[in-house]
Design goal:
Its EC number is 2.1.1.228. The protein is of the alpha/beta class and about 270 residues long. The chain folds into two domains: about 160 residues, Alpha/beta knot (3-Layer(aba) Sandwich); about 80 residues, tRNA(m1g37)methyltransferase, domain 2 (Trp Operon Repressor, Chain A), CATH 1.10.1270.20. It is about 30% helix and about 15% strand. The chain is built from eight helices and eleven strands. β10 and β11 form a beta hairpin. It starts with a strand and ends in a 7-residue tail after the last strand. It binds adenine. The site of adenine has 11 residues, from β5.
Length: about 270
């Protein structure tokens, strides 16, 4: 996969040399090209921003450097990349979107500073490319570089051969599949006792069926506690008899449409 990132802070993207993404680059699985937007300015001060039309606070990124940068990058490759524009006004970045973007051969990220990029840039490339305006959460950062780090890591770990154990993203929280709609439960490793704290007995039993059931019950407990909205939204067809028992114990019951809602405080803690 090829990734181009256009930024006024190339050094902000240094973490892409480290760990999983760094190794994927070193192995040639990821071709990451970081570009300094100021290289496409022509004035002495390398100006990339200007005051907003209509007034208001802050500055807006000028269209000309972006246009020249993007034209040159587009001309340097075959086919059309998906253009990812990080913005707090974008659609939510989800695991589903990470999976979709991981299937594209080429992504171009355009992290902005200030109040964002002149709208005409998004329109211009929207006519030619699949442009996605994406937010990583309901908070406002000072720029799109940290969101690019987040998105690239989420996407890169899905690429074939990048994670050591291909099975390890199949039961990620939010991954499509049997554990969809549930958060992952707790994990343990050796030693078997640490500061007087032991491991849940079932994990030492070697009984795969019981372990799977215990993990699923723990996933329900954690989802109930941290993300009840996921249970409310879940398709109840995904819940088996044991799921319904743990949900009932946690204070959930199906409504008239079959979807689960909270009825009372939990019976068990
Ligand atoms: N730029 C500033 N805040 C952002 C956010 N939450 N998501 C994506 N890009 C951003």
């Amino acid at each position: 996969m090829r990734l181009d990132i256009v930024t006024i802070f190339p050094e902000y993207l240094e973490p892409l040399n480290v760990s999983l993404v760094g190794k994927a680059r070193a192995r040639g699985q990821l071709d990451v090209r970081i570009h300094d937007l100021r290289e496409w300015t022509h004035d002495k001060h390398h100006t990339v921003d200007d005051t907003p039309y209509g007034g208001g606070p802050g500055m807006v990124m000028k269209p000309e450097p972006w246009g020249e940068a993007l034209d040159e990058i587009l001309a340097s490759g075959d086919g059309r990349p998906v253009m990812v524009v990080p913005t707090p006004s974008g659609a939510p970045f989800t695991q589903q979107l990470a999976v979709e973007l991981s299937e594209a051969p080429w992504l171009v990220f355009t992290p902005a500073r200030y109040e964002g990029i002149d709208r005409r840039v998004i329109e211009e490339y929207g006519d030619r490319l699949d442009v996605r305006e994406v937010s990583i959460g309901d908070y406002v950062l000072a720029g799109g570089e940290a969101p690019v780090l987040v998105m690239v890591e989420a996407i890169a770990r899905l690429l074939p051969g990048v994670l050591g154990n291909a099975a390890s993203h199949q039961d990620d929280s939010f991954a499509p599949g049997a554990m969809a709609d549930l958060l992952e439960g707790p994990v343990y490793t050796k030693p078997p006792e640490w500061r007087g704290r032991t491991i849940p007995e079932v994990l030492l039993s070697g009984h795969h069926g019981k372990i799977a059931r215990w993990r699923r019950d723990e996933a329900f407990r954690r989802t109930d506690r941290n993300r009840p909205d996921l249970i409310e939204r879940a398709d109840p067809a995904a819940f088996d008899k044991k799921d319904r028992e743990i949900l009932a114990a946690l204070g959930w019951a199906p409504g008239t449409d079959g979807r689960f809602g909270r009825t009372s405080e939990a019976v068990e803690e």
